[in-house]
Amino acid sequence: MWAPDKSAAPPPKMDSRYTSTAGIGDLNQLSAAIPATRVEVSVSCRGIPGKKCGTIILTAEELNCCRDAVLMQFCANKLDKKDFFGKSDPFLVFYRSNEDGSFTICHKTEVVKNTLNPVWQAFKISVRALCNGDYDRTIKVEVYDWDRDGSHDFIGEFTTSYRELSRGQSQFNVYEVVNPKKKGKKKKYTNSGTVTLLSFLVETEVSFLDYIKGGTQINFTVAIDFTASNGNPAQPTSLHYMNPYQLNAYGMALKAVGEIVQDYDSDKMFPALGFGAKLPPDGRISHEFALNGNPQNPYCDGIEGVMEAYYRSLKSVQLYGPTNFAPVINHVARYASSVKDGSQYFVLLIVTDGVISDMAQTKESIVNASKLPMSIIIVGVGPAEFDAMVELDGDDVRVSSRGKYAERDIVQFVPFRDYIDRSGNHILSMARLAKDVLAEIPEQFLSYMRARGIKPSPAPPPYTPPTHVLQTQI
């Protein structure tokens, strides 16, 4: 665990500092007391009677609206040797200076093992994180020798600014690494090596909303699990129980999550599919049927339309199995594969009880879909273990099939039970549910657009009524 030099003087106290004795739950109440620009709020923690539980210091600074990011690469030459049996294992730590004279870590490079002349990998950092858009603000860089036990050895430091770095590779961006303690003790001390900027490239970062404003359409498709593992809909224990007085587990999840995602779909018309049921009149098993009974036009009008089609299907189909995800994933993938110019992006919402039968085929479908403008949200309902869903989520290990890994992470899994109370009838926090359901969609969307080099179209100018209309109103 790396830590900054503890010998550094603490930041000066500020007029805008507030001190409060509070529990963690009281932190939100303090936000109303925080003015603009930069402040610090000291919060004394309590919990164990008669004992001091420490202090949390919250520091806030108003962010500049700069949206640039910079890609930089550094190397070093003739750094001090710190390891007894080797050379050094150097890494860099970058600090943004704050308005009160203190410093905040904004980036740390990887460690380059056993060398005094390291070349670090290029890294990207937002200009806001680096200097909050202030091109002349001091940037401090410290050089350390990595140690396994976390007691990293300080080699030296230097300061620069965004404006200096923006000159790129030149004699202006070769920095002497100085250790102040060694400089104070040794008269002949010059430096502890040099660090050189190898490259500096500025990029303007675009956001998810830039694409939406530019006209990119988000298309949501809903797929509902109608397999027998959900239980007999006539029984109160079933996740599909048709209770005349309140929504069942699927109804709650559909309504809650659907109302969140529908705001991003411009026409509010959702293809709604079911899978894992026997269909009338011949009892054939389907893993890709239209809830409204019209395979040529499976669109439902808003989430209310999806809910109506869902309850209508429950009365006509027979819950069966197995639980196959691949057919509905491939269904959406067929549409996504035909629109790769950035004008449309597809999101599949699967609501399921978590028992999956075609894991190998589903993984292959996800790997194939990762190359398309497409994301998948899986909402797990009921008390089952969702280990398979977590595996498909791919946050820890990217999904793979037949030796091929998904090009990008496109799956977000949300266990719905984490957001409802013990009775199972009320949602604890719609805001938290909304945040977690949509948490990964913007970055998944952007990762596709970046990989394909697709830029957002310019937003259309705001509508201004004709002059004669304005004159008539006046």
UniProtKB/TrEMBL annotation:
Keywords: Repeat. The keyword Repeat applies. Residues 219-420 form the VWFA domain. Residues 52-175 form the C2 domain. Belongs to the copine family. This is Copine 8. The gene is CPNE8.
